[in-house]
Every structure is written in C-alpha cells, then in structure tokens.
C-alpha cells in the first residue's frame, strides 16, 4: 500500500510540474493576455510570415505582441491587432510594418514612431502600414528580368 501511495504522489508531482511548464510557456509565447498593455489595430495587404504571438518591436526592443489576425472580407486586407506595453506612447502618425530578421530569419512587426504631438489612443488604428515582402516573389522577378528581352544572334 505504501508503494502505491508513493507512485501516486510522484505522478501528481510530475503532472503539477508539467502543468507549470505549460503555463510558463503560454505566457512567454504571447498566448496569454498581456497585463499592463493596450491594443492597437492595423490593416495589411499581406501578413505573410507573422502569426498570433509574433513580437512587436520598437527600435529593436520587444514592446508587445500580435494578438489577432483576421481577413477583412470587404477590403481583402488582413486586419491585425497588437498589444503594446503601457507607457509606450506612439504618435498618431506612426508607421507599422512587417520586417524580416534576414534572408533566412523570422519575421516580426516593427513600429516606427512619427513626429506628431498627438498620441494614438488605445484601440486606435495605425493608418501607415507596410505588409510583408515575399522574398520568393522578389527573386522570381530578379531572375525573370535577366532572361527576357536581349537575345544575341550568332554571326
């Protein structure tokens, strides 16, 4: 009977540790609601490379996360909602764009503050957006531009 009790207690401890790691991982990935933050909205032509939980950065420093992505059926743009830490006040002429960490790196959302004296209110929409640039499309245009047009004829 003592062996069964020890096995049950060990199993419960392992289960509690696993649950603790799951909660910790959910908070670190942006899946849990961020406390001490406010939401902003933006509409992009393309959000390729980002998902819910993607970092939002200002001057290279993480200041928030992407909290939702949805297709707007009227405009056919992707509507994004981001959460930004309280205390980060952005001018109302700020820009938001999707950037890549390099050719093979991941994507993130970058905030570029404007120069206005008025700040964005919680829930406001950032009008100046730039969507994701597809590296594959750029490469296909580059390769395609070199193969057409000038053909030499042999004498």
From TrEMBL:
It comes from the Bacteria. This is Outer membrane lipid asymmetry maintenance protein MlaD. Residues 37-114 form the Mce/MlaD domain.
């Amino acid at each position: 009977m003592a062996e069964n009790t020890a096995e049950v207690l060990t199993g419960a401890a392992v289960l509690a540790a696993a649950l603790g790691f799951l909660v910790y991982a959910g908070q670190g990935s942006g899946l849990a609601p961020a406390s001490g933050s406010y939401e902003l909205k933006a509409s992009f032509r393309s959000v390729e490379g980002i998902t819910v939980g993607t970092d939002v950065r200002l001057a290279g420093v993480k200041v928030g996360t992407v909290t939702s992505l949805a297709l707007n059926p009227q405009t056919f743009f992707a509507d994004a909602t981001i959460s930004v830490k309280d205390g980060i006040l952005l001018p109302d002429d700020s820009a938001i764009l999707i950037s890549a960490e390099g050719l093979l790196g991941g994507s993130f959302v970058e905030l570029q503050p404007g120069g206005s004296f008025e700040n964005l209110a919680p829930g406001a929409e950032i009008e100046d957006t730039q969507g994701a640039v597809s590296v594959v499309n750029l490469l296909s245009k580059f390769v395609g531009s070199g193969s057409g047009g000038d053909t030499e004829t042999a004498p």
